[in-house]
Amino acid sequence: MFDWDTYITETIGIPANEFGITKLTGGIINSTVRLRLDKPLSEGIAAHDASSTQPASSAFPTNAATNATSYVLKFAPAHMPNEPSVPLSTARQAVEARALRHLSTDPQLAGALRAADVAVPSLVWHDEERKVLWISDLGELTTLSDYLRAQVVDEVVSALWDGKEGPSPAAIGAKLGTALASIHAASINPPPETVAQLTYRETDVANQLKGYLEVLFTKYELDTPADAEKLALRMGLDFSPEPRDGLKVWGMGDLWPGSVLLTTPPSDGMALVDWEFPYVAHPGAEVGMILAHVAGHAYEAVYPASGRTPSAGVAATLRARSLEFGTALADAYAARAPELLSHSFTRAALCGYGREVALQADFNAEFYSDTGKRATVVEGRSALVAAGEGEEDVDLGRWASVAGEEEGVGGGALLLPLLAKVRQA
Q: What is the pTM of this model?
């Protein structure tokens, strides 16, 4: 556990009674907190430096934004939380720092975000020695997951939204779909220096995910070990299959409902956070990823874990909100950037969707019954089967979405209508 109080006092010299630390939720890898100060950071540092032989101001870049009283700080551990045997490279934090700087300085990307009315945090300081990233505080926000689960985690939403009615799932989905398409359209086939400086992919991490899929496919007796490995490899060890049409874009790479934040009503603000795993891949891969997570929320309503069983009405609402959001996202994406629905889109989307929805049974296991875990694995496997050995082997007719079709919660409800537009493009 990272000692935030000690870190703050040692780094900027402000006494413990002049600041507060609040743990933030949403991510599963980093330790993320909100730092609230009694006075602007610059004033606190100046007061410390006036009476100290070790000035704290020297730690911050001269252009750092130190006039605020609230910041978000992220510590990057060198291993998975509670699993010291699973290493994580802290290089991802340096990539995020560069990505945030790029998003604010690249004219096309900055313009795309402004046009979509979507915020990203500003980089304040990257403390490379202590592995802490300082970023701007975007305010009291709720994750997209909590929004979709509004009536399931009512205490969370009520505390943040005070009972006010927010924008509709369709409006939020359309906004995210437009923003995602705008980011992709502004970063088509990025130059080699962008790929080198602004992407994070490690074969070890990809191999771990492949291993998780193999275990899930065999655990539920869907495949032999050999066939499970063959299917798992379809995700591509760089997290996305190589597109034959050559179209690639720069994207978040870890786009899920926990990285999409919403402001409190009546505002309809949106922010995209956690840029530590950006990648360059076909745009279909990232669209498939976010739709998989949305489908995962719909599965929660149909196959809830023991102790999380909602009433019939609440379950229907959660499922309807998820499907309404996902459908609007897909429609808005296609409308904003039809040129991205290229030949390779279908297989990239199937692979991204298949990987992420199957992994729900592992990464979000606490939300599903045993039947639900199996259903997500079946759904993910079905998408990977449909993806075939290559783009020439894609066959949507193979999509045997056994669990999803009956309840209307699977990729057949979210992904197939979008892929139909690809075939028309």
A: 0.89
